[in-house]
């Protein structure tokens, strides 16, 4: 990848990274928004992803068994197609992944929306434990693909939107996900070589924005603020923004554009 940070348009491409239980197609609105603002956009896949959420539902075991390291490397290979370092925007576990990639200097900047906790975040709020229990409750899920029921999706993702919208989001976006990343995050405190470790000391990386939804059950604000503390010794820019009244679905529900607007403004403030 080249050392330049912009394309011919004067702006870097923007690459979107999904998290557990979602597909790259969940970024469609964001891609269109950023294209309209002059950016080239791409939504990367995880290993085993089908062409759509529906295709992945039909072949769930294709995504089974992959962990944070394998997924990060899979995305890093996709980033090699770009002649310049892209902006990386990730949601949930995608938010953790973009931090790892930024720490490896594979992006010009990163926005991590309700990111899964990196190593060094030790808090485990009850809501996060409850939202993760469909996976962590069975050790055999470490090597399996796991799907959420509609009620589990409602609690974890869509608790801050009306019931009708929660049902629509579940029907449109929910798909199986590998269980292994959640086990890796849950045991990171006790594993010095955890795959969820980020290079927080990298002082020459691009700027990072950590975004939190006030009412998120899966990644409550305390976890995002704790992630911010992980970077406290780095001279690189690390910013924090919390959105009032928003849950874990904040990147894909009816209020997604509020986040997209803020993200675009933040990138502009960094010269990107």
Instruction: Please give the radius of gyration in angstroms.
Output: 17 Å
Question: Ends: how far apart?
Answer: 18 Å
- Unreliable stretches (pLDDT < 50, length at least 5) are none
Order of helices and strands: EHEHHEHEHEHHEHEHEH
Read across the widest sheet, the strand sequence of neighbours is 2-1-3-4-7-8
Q: What would the CATH topology be?
A: Rossmann fold
The biggest sheet, with number of strands, parallel, antiparallel or mixed sense and barrel status, is: 6 strands, parallel
By DSSP, the count of extended strands is 8
Beta-strand percentage range: 5-15%
What's the CATH H-level homologous superfamily? Answer: Alpha/Beta hydrolase fold, catalytic domain
The average pLDDT value, as a whole number, equals 95
Helical amount: 25-40%
Fold and architecture overview:
The protein is of the alpha/beta class. It has one domain: Alpha/Beta hydrolase fold, catalytic domain (Rossmann fold, 3-Layer(aba) Sandwich). It is 36% helix and 12% strand. The chain has 10 helices and 8 strands. The strands form 2 sheets. It has a 6-stranded parallel sheet, with helices on both faces. Strands 5-6 form a two-stranded antiparallel ribbon. Helix 3 crosses helix 4 and helix 5 packs antiparallel against helix 6. The longest helix is centred in the C-terminal third of the chain and has 14 residues. The model has no long low-confidence stretch (mean pLDDT 95).
Short key terms for the protein model shown above:
272 residues, alpha/beta, Rossmann fold, 6-stranded parallel beta sheet, two-stranded antiparallel ribbon, 10 helices
């Amino acid at each position: 990848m080249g050392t330049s940070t912009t394309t011919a348009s004067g702006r870097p491409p923007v690459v979107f990274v999904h998290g557990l239980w979602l597909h790259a197609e969940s970024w469609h609105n964001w891609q269109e928004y950023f294209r309209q603002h002059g950016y080239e956009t791409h939504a990367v896949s995880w290993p085993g992803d089908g062409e759509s959420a529906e295709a992945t539902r039909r072949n769930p075991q294709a995504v089974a068994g992959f962990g944070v390291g394998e997924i990060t490397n899979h995305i890093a290979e996709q980033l090699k197609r770009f002649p310049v370092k892209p902006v990386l925007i990730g949601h949930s576990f995608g938010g953790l992944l973009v931090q790892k990639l930024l720490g490896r200097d594979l992006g010009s900047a990163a926005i991590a929306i309700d990111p899964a906790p990196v190593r060094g975040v030790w808090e485990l709020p009850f809501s996060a434990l409850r939202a993760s229990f469909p996976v962590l409750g069975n050790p055999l899920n470490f090597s399996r693909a796991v799907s959420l029921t509609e009620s589990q999706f409602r609690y974890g993702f869509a608790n801050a939107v009306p019931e009708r919208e929660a049902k629509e989001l579940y029907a449109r976006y929910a798909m199986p996900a590998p269980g292994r990343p959640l086990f890796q995050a849950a045991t990171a405190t006790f594993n010095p070589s955890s795959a969820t470790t980020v290079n927080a000391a990298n002082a020459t990386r691009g700027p990072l924005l950590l975004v939190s939804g006030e009412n998120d059950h899966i990644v409550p604000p305390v976890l995002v603020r704790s992630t911010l503390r992980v970077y406290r010794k780095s001279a690189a820019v690390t910013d924090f923004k919390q959105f009032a009244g928003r849950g874990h679905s904040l990147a894909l529900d009816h209020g997604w554009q509020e986040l997209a607007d803020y993200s675009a403004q933040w990138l502009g403030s960094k010269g990107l």
